[in-house]
Amino acid sequence: MFSEKGLEQPRGFPEAVASRVALGIGLAGVLLRGVLLLLDVPPTNSDEATMGLAGAHIAAGTDLPIWFYGQAYMGPIEAYLAAPLFALFGSGTLLLRLPILFGYAAFPFLMYRLTLRLFTPGLAVVTVGLLALGSDRVIKNQMIAGGGYPEMLPAAAGLMLLALWLADGGHQPLRRAAGYATFGLVTSLALWVDWLVLPYLGVAGIVLLVGCHRELRGWAGAVLAAATVLGALPLIWYNLDAPAGLDSFSVHRALSAPGDAALGPQLKAGVLIGLPLATGLCAPGHCARPLWLWGPLYLALLTVAAVLAMTGWYRTRDGQRLRYLARLGLLAAAAGTLLAYLRGTGPTLDAYESVRYLHCLLVSTPAVLWPLWRVGRLRAFRLAAVAVVTAVAVLATGQLLAAVPGYREQADEHRDLVATLGRLGVTHVYSEYWTCNRIAFDTRERIVCAVLTPAMTPGLDRRPAFRDQVRASPTPAYAFPTGSPTDAAFAQRLAARAIPATVTETEGYRIYQPVNAVPLP
After folding, report:
1. How far apart are CA 129 and CA 119, in angstroms?
2. How far is CA 278 from CA 43, 256, 385, 391, in A?
3. Helix (H) or strand (E) holding 480
4. C or N terminus of the chain, fewer CB within 10 Å?
5. Collapsing DSSP states into helix, strand and coil, what is residue 508?
6. Residue 197: left (phi > 0), alpha (psi -120 to 50), or beta?
């Protein structure tokens, strides 16, 4: 039942043709994302603006942050990548995202080569086609420079491909040394950026160890270790004198603490909703109930694919054995990523936003789809199954495109807010979290902002200096999304204290300029 014989190179799709088709599809995926970025899609947020502020500070030489502002994890590599562009052209969201777009451009190419090495040309083309599409959730994960998610995909795919390339042997020593150095450097940089990629780094490391264990005992191991230490320097530097409880291991142990939600809600949010969302099948902010079936089907495909990989590994005794180990590794990484997600608080806390923690599942796409491609003797069934998955992904992409006018309207509302604050002469303002750092970044800190919660208490100010500056201002303004809980609470505070204020309405926001100071907790 599980024999793989005769199914590795199906007829009718030569590798040369597959390469040209995949290249065209991959370029179309890059073009789609480039056009969306020009249209203010996906919508930016304060987390991305915080990364932009870090990039601006790096470009100006005023700061070299080790972590994303306001926390002791998540290396801000996106800020470092954008800093040269900021130094040349000035800061802006589009420039912040440009390195991410180039990073995505490498992803379909790496996935094509990886799938071709492990499976078949036909499946490689299908994989690139699915990855070139983009639902709302997938595009947000891939294109928002909010901290680590976009870089994980090319890093995970590239490391697995590099491990297989090194295991092949027969390359020039200098090229092999460069390969080991790249493997070590990318691995440690990826761990600095975000530990969510750890399952994929782990299985790539196992493939490298199994395929190159003899060479790793000598010079190759030394090169790998040296490059790993070099890439880990930010981590090492920080942890040498990290405050108690804020060392990297303590922080990530706390972040990965198990949640206390019941199993049923966790499975519903994590499997039924999370898997179709993470793999690009859902509309913006909504996952239709029929699509929930993809969750159990995904688990079934993963299980069957694991049996196929283990059977192939057991029956093979030549150099092909490593291919089955790599297939099994991609499946194990997907399973580990899902289990870690289900173990935490994310699924029931916010199923639609926390699903970004499943972002790396896209790297396992060909391994999970292999059972569908495997039924070679039932060609009609295979084509129908792949066509259904592709059609749903195309529909989700179309639903994102339909949401573009709404996203552009949101961007226009924020630009109007910033312009109005400038016109009113505001330099210090209070707002809610998802607006605050956007104001500071978009105005290149000509206007600084401090966060207020609906309880009128200080919120999460990722730049405490901004909060201090706003507090010191005798006449700060207050800007909140119209009708939001924070807006309503502030209006009630003004009324209760009979403090007169000039109120300026913009599309989507309300700006208050009180005559007297407003007492805050």
Report:
1. 16
2. 18, 19, 19, 16
3. strand 477-481
4. N
5. coil
6. alpha
Distance CA 143, CA 191 (A): 20
Cα–Cα distance for residue pair 218/214, rounded to 1 Å: 8
Distance CA 93, CA 53 (A): 10
Task: Evaluate whether 322 touches 167 at the Cβ level (below 8 Å).
Answer: yes
Is residue 204 within 8 A of residue 190, CB to CB? The reply is no
- pTM for the full model? 0.93
Bridge-partner residues for 428, per DSSP? Answer: 448
β-bridge partners, 478:
430, 512
Task: Give residue 120's region: left, alpha or beta (phi > 0; psi -120 to 50).
Answer: beta
- Residue in this structure with the two tokens 């949640």, named with its chain if needed: 259
SS (H, E, C) 267-309: HHHHHHHHHHHHCCCCECCECCHHHHHHHHHHHHHHHHHHHHH
Q: Are 337 and 199 in contact (CB under 8 A)?
A: yes
State the helix-helix crossing angle for 149-168 and 321-343, rounded to 10 degrees: 160
CA distance 42 to 382: 34
The tokens describing 154, both together, are 């090319």
At 411, phi and psi to the nearest 5? -65, -40
Helices (H), 217-247: 219-231, 233-240
Q: Are 272 and 298 in contact (CB under 8 A)?
A: no
Task: Name 503's bridge partners.
Answer: 512
Residue 518 corresponds to which tokens in the numbers above?
Answer: 């407003």
In the chain, what is the straight-line distance between the N-terminal and C-terminal CA atoms, in Å? 69
